[in-house]
Specification:
alpha/beta, TIM Barrel, eight-stranded parallel beta barrel, two-stranded antiparallel ribbon, about 20% strand, Luciferase-like_sf, oxidoreductase
Length: about 300
Amino acid sequence: MTSAMRNRPLRIGILVPQGEYRWNGRLPRWSDLEAMARLAEEIGLDSLWVVDHLLYRTPDGEPEGIWECWSLLSAFAAVTKRITLGTLVLCTNWRNPALIAKMAETVNEISGGRLILGLGAGNTEQEFRRFGFPWERRVSRFAEALAIVHGLLRNGWIDYAGEFYTVRDCLLRPRGPRSQGPPILVGGNGPRVLRLAAQYADIWNTYYDFTGNRASGLGPQIEAFRAACRDVGRDWSSVTLSASALVAFPGHGRIYGVVADPVRGTPEEIAEEFRAYARAGIQHLQLRIEPNTLEGLEQLGRVLEVLDRAE
């Protein structure tokens, strides 16, 4: 049953835990993540999202390992049946952009057309340095990569020569279940990235770092995106608006990387905050839940039951 059939005012997804301490203090194994994906479908979530990082740092400065994004996404495509799968977001500076388009088309095929391809420039210098990727001019590199990925997915062919990437007479074959490839999500709030989102994105995303983790903080971010659309001559209503939010349930441990107060409360109170996002224009909400475990997911299920009731 779709969220629309359940009176759900917007689509709801979760960010899966990928880091060493993110399963309420321990490393999630693949068996944990597979169980989470299956439970996410069972409770009626709309989407499942993976982040793209190579090495976190804890608040104490210690290194924290993380499972690789695209490998997990491919596995989720094979073990789920209904739920939408997305990257929030894949760093184009770590992979050749023509290869990204090829990877996306293949996972879209495995999933039966359930992929959202979220793309970004990357934002953590130490990861770039440690793994040998160039940090300088990463947004300029992202702009070229985005043009190549978009061109290949939409048209199946591109011939492109830029400062950073050159692909000559490149064909994307075979094609998956969508004639123009999966929808592209661009996440970010800087002026250049907003402009790129306005040019290329089907979905724009703002992260809770920029909104204070409340629907009430969305206004300036959405207006900045709409202004970017006006600048490039894009109808902003043709782009789906999405946002992330941090939600804390009873029983969570230490929450790493917190920059805003988590949403807390009864299922009714949390559901009302989700409705506020919908009223603000958000059509898809990606949640980081704590505890980010099966128990936390079960508590989210109770919020969804409230959210799905007609107001």
